[in-house]
């Protein structure tokens, strides 16, 4: 019996988006859901208590980074990642593959795995499907990800085909090496870039292995938005209805709505937390760069339509001042608001699906956020 199960509650008659629930050993969460990213066993500047306050039910953490620091043995000794970081909600860990391919330039991909250099000190390292499983088993995350290759965009067809086939072979090795099948669910990752037949091949290979959930990888790697939407349109129907679908690396409000409309259930991205530390906020009227001079005398909240703790108690002027002075508290306030904003957005998306009006919701939201303007920013 897999520890991860999915319940499809209903499908939006207007858009086809799915309302559902994912059950994990550390609680259940409603979908579509956004997962805040806690790379180094912390969502930067947020305490686990604050994550609970904003109703985060599942967070993501990074295998590669925790492998290097502090090392999986220390986390195992602590009793697993949940205990180590004092987070009792669900945790998803990635496989480390994405960082190996994005952070390290001296890498050699072989059938057995990937040889590369530590991005911190240049030391030689080797990551394989077996090693990625061993680390994630030590971390004890609720959802683990199979070790895959995430090819860059654009990638030539022949390269992509060879890569998809290797990723399928690696997925089998991951299943074989996974040592805690009753406690941790392992998701397969569908690759294939923008090529429909390769996405089909990847989905066929992986669904035949019967994972408890599937990710759609290789998107949000620099391709135009239309390509992401098109790939989702032909990929989600290839995945089983009774398993959750996770679109990796997506967290801009427009892409979350577009992804949900194409049948995606789970998302993660560093975007809301990263831009927060640059003094940029997501608001119901579009993005707001609170560090800008024009907010120096502005004593209104970041977002008048937001009922988060930050918007109820702090002003643009004060937050601008803190961020300009590099005060940690400023980063905490913008991070808190941005995560609250996205989690609230997903709540609104779920309510719209429940009432078969996600298409209407999208129209209103895009108009207000400014996505319909000709030179709208990407978030
Ligand atoms: Zn707020």
From TrEMBL:
Residues that coordinate or bind substrate: 94-98, 148, 191, 218
Pfam families, A to Z: TGT (PF01702)
Comment on bound cofactor: Binds 1 zinc ion per subunit.
Residues given in the record as Zn(2+) binding sites: 306, 308, 311, 337
tRNA-guanine(15) transglycosylase-like domain ranges (all copies): 15-369
GO CC, alphabetical: cytosol
UniProt region (RNA binding), positions on chain: 249-255, 273-277
Biological process terms in GO annotation: tRNA queuosine(34) biosynthetic process
UniProt keyword annotations, A-Z: Glycosyltransferase, Metal-binding, Queuosine biosynthesis, Transferase, tRNA processing, Zinc
Subunit structure of this chain's protein: Homodimer. Within each dimer, one monomer is responsible for RNA recognition and catalysis, while the other monomer binds to the replacement base PreQ1.
PANTHER family listed in its UniProt record: QUEUINE TRNA-RIBOSYLTRANSFERASE
Family: Belongs to the queuine tRNA-ribosyltransferase family.
Chain's role: Catalyzes the base-exchange of a guanine (G) residue with the queuine precursor 7-aminomethyl-7-deazaguanine (PreQ1) at position 34 (anticodon wobble position) in tRNAs with GU(N) anticodons (tRNA-Asp, -Asn, -His and -Tyr). Catalysis occurs through a double-displacement mechanism. The nucleophile active site attacks the C1' of nucleotide 34 to detach the guanine base from the RNA, forming a covalent enzyme-RNA intermediate. The proton acceptor active site deprotonates the incoming PreQ1, allowing a nucleophilic attack on the C1' of the ribose to form the product.
Protein name listed in UniProt: Queuine tRNA-ribosyltransferase
Organism of derivation: Virgibacillus oceani
